[in-house]
Amino acid sequence: MSNVKNSLKDPFPKENLHLIDLGHADGHRDKNTENTFITTKAINQFNLDRHSIIIGPYGTGKSTLFKLLKSNSKILGPYVDRLVVPVEEQIQFDELRNLSELYFSNISKRLLYQLVWKLHICKQICKKISTLEGFPRTNNEKYLNEFLSRVGVEDGDKSITKILKDLCTSISFKIKAKITSTPIEVEVGREGKGRSKPTMEINLENVFDNILRSLGDRCNSALVIIDKLDKFVTNEDYQTQKEYIESLLEVEDDLQSSCSIGFKIFLRSDLYHRLNLSSLGPDKVSDNTLKLCWSSEEISSFIAKRLFVSLIDANIWKLEELAESTDLSDMHLRWHDKVCASRNKSGFVYRLALFWRRFFVKKRSTSLFDKIDCAIFSILFDEKIVHACEGGGKESISIRDFIRTHFLDGHDACTPRHILIFLKKVICETIEYYRINPDLNAHTQPVSTGWGWGIFSKEIVYSAYCAAKKEYVENVVRMDEKWTRNFSELVDKLKGKSMLDYKWICQNISAPSLSGDFVGFLSFLEVIGFLKVKENNVDIKKRKYVVPIIYKQSFVAKG
Prior knowledge:
Number of domains: 3
Radius of gyration: 28 Å
Largest sheet: 5 strands, parallel
Number of strands: 15
Helix content: 40-55%
């Protein structure tokens, strides 16, 4: 430790705190994704491209993966050259039901939904192919161009239900397709008012064959990525949603037999587990499914990398300053490690060091950057955090143990979304502290890994945690306007309650705005992880629940 050089700015440049940008909690909007991406065990599995169905609770990174695939990001190397076809339509399930009843009453809803999916997927792939250079340059592509003109692609991003409704009301049309090897033919709109309507035929098998040939001609393969199917709904909408998603998985199973077209379908894990997959074979579907989850070590890396990058951008530190201020003696650094951590990031020696480390170095159990991750916590945070318990007393807990235990939701999951909200609160609390105390500074001091500031004190961290918990609850309140009033009432009555069930909900929550749908409300609370199942039962009315720590009331420590 005595040999470690202190290269950190002294004092901490508190005037730069407001420049720290940690990114957005919504993966679709986060501009820091590429610079702060963490390759977890789940991501390594994802990059093997062996799974079509990607599941996870809210906030685990499904939207981030969708965004990276959509932009052909180099971060997801195995997919970078694929022709990515995004489908992110938020279907209106009441419109879908009405469409079925008005125009397709002669076929089952299941078959209709499969037909809708096949039409929608074919349309989106054709639309993507039409953006390629020289389109349409072959007879196959001319066929696809004609198909696009028939289904009205020139109208922009028209929803699939709107396309079908327009076809049904304006012309007589016939759709031919094969669904799971079964040929079907559906004709709609034969009866006109006063005169017969023009008839148009759409043969989806011919469309699909021409898609495959067009992809082959261009030496391309398509990857259909599907998101935003799993908005929380109840009653009739929920049943329609289930049938619609089940139909999608059946169509995916049918289409994926072609090596030219792959799928990535992103679903909320709780909804996925309630699907009826008997027609596909549950074991087969399970083998095709990847669950996104984060270990405590991966969450720590997420925190460290977000802080590392954002503080560099805010001109608070540099990599070489961190490396020089960290005790790396136990790492037994080799010449290439020292070069990579040096201030000079150019020249032949630096390029040689990168090459050497990539191709000739065996991986250590603890890498240089793992050590830097640990150092970032020690540099910025107090080693111990004060945890206030229910009796009002204080308990000390290490910052890493605090992160590992205090952010678990009802699914026992700690998500990047919750962590990001917390980190932003830490920054805000720190800015406010130094605004109120402008004469104070955070000076460098010896810490367990070398030198640090301890700018995020234990008091600031716990205050930020309490503020973050309030925001977590407020976010849940706003998640679905149908339950807003009832959820607010629940939060008020939960204080001091250790366990609850269906009976308690019925007795304590007002029914009018729920229209008596207590089961739906309880399901919603379980789905979003606000409640944790303590005693499980097939019948939701017999389950026992507790409030997980992330939503539980925080107590202010005395003294």
